[in-house]
């Protein structure tokens, strides 16, 4: 269904309206449907420049030295596990050689 532009709700169509001045945004004149009192405006907002991410890179795992350290610890654990299990694997291979084919 086609709606003529003058009947469509939206920012563009609200710019020239003059009714309900206390419910309208200052720049766009858009009617929010509720009165805007000065005590409801958030005056303490901080618009200073921030990091582009929510967390610092270190908290997200971007610290290469920390990641390398964790990798080396895991590698050491795995090598120790292999060293411990190697005699059992060798014994199993030796035993399997005697099985009939």
Architecture overview:
The chain is mainly alpha-helical and 101 residues long. Helix content is 37%, strand content 0%. It has two helices and no strands. It has helices spanning 11-14, 64-96. It is rod-shaped. The mean pLDDT is 77.
Question: Which terms summarize this structure?
Answer:
single chain, 101 residues, mainly alpha, 2 helices, 37% helix, 0% strand
Give the arrangement of secondary structure elements.
Layout: H1 11-14, H2 64-96
Order of helices and strands: HH
Shape: rod-shaped
Overall pLDDT confidence: 77
Tell me about the largest β-sheet. Answer: none
Number of helices: 2
Q: What class do helices, strands and sheet pairing give?
A: mainly alpha
How many strands appear in the DSSP assignment? 0
Q: Which regions are unreliable across 5 or more consecutive residues at pLDDT < 50?
A: none
In a few lines, what is going on in this structure?
This protein has helices at residues 11-14, 64-96. The chain has 101 residues and is mainly alpha-helical.
């Amino acid at each position: 269904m086609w709606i003529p532009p003058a009947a469509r709700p939206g920012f563009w169509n609200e710019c020239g309206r003059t009714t309900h001045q206390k419910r309208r945004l200052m720049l766009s004149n858009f009617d929010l449907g509720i009165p805007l009192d000065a005590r409801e405006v958030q005056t303490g907002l901080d618009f200073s420049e921030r990091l582009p991410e929510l967390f610092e890179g270190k908290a997200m795992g971007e610290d290469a030295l920390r990641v390398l350290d964790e990798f080396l610890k895991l590698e050491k654990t795995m090598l120790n596990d292999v060293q411990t299990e190697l005699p059992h694997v060798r014994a199993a291979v030796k035993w399997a050689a005697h099985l009939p084919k």
